Amino acid sequence: MTTGQLPAVCRLADAELGKGYLSEADLLRTELQTLVASDSGSVIGFITCEIVTTSILRQQAGKLFNVLPAEFQLAGRLGKIGSLVVEKSRQQQGIGTCLLSAALEELARSVQRVFLLGWRSAKGTNVQPLARKLGFEQVAVIRNYWQEASQQQGYACPVCGAPPCHCSAVIFCKVL
Fold first, then answer.
1. For the chain, what are the domain ranges?
2. What is the pTM of this model?
């Protein structure tokens, strides 16, 4: 992602993930990589990924860490796919597949195991078909995963509306 693409990525995140879910500061963290899909200079999708240590993951996201398979908990370092967003009018055109494949290729340079957080609402699980298509296995569901964070950070879920968010996280894992 270039600094020139940052405002468009933030607008897309606000529209699809909820206003305020991802801030410019979040996207500019040095350890986070944001890969962007564009068409004629316009941002049409993005994915975030990063390498996380299992010790930090255990401290910062214990309920997530605890549902990972043992081989993931013992790995030391994991790849994490955070957010995958494609503009609504451009979905079902292979853009999400390209973004997720590129992120996996990037992460494969440093780790052998990757996990992905899917978002389950009353409308279904957003990334499930794509995750399965690229070899991820669903390992757990954490109910009301974003409830506390949505209240603390004040972001509005695009499905639930104003905090609290009642959506669940669906955890998918893949060995590269």
1. 6-175
2. 0.93
Q: Which two tokens stand for residue 88?
A: 């609504």
Q: Which amino acid is at 144?
A: N
Q: Residue 40 forms beta bridges with which residues? A: none
CATH class of 6-175: alpha beta
pLDDT band at 128 (very low <50, low <70, confident <90, very high): very high
Distances (CA, A) of 83 to 12, 40, 158: 11, 23, 14
- Cα–Cα distance for residue pair 145/120, rounded to 1 Å: 10
pLDDT digits (tens, 9 = 90+) for 98-127: 999 999 999 999 999 999 999 898 888 889
The DSSP letter of residue 89 is G
CB within 8 Å of 120: residues ≥ 6 apart: 126, 141, 167, 168, 169, 170
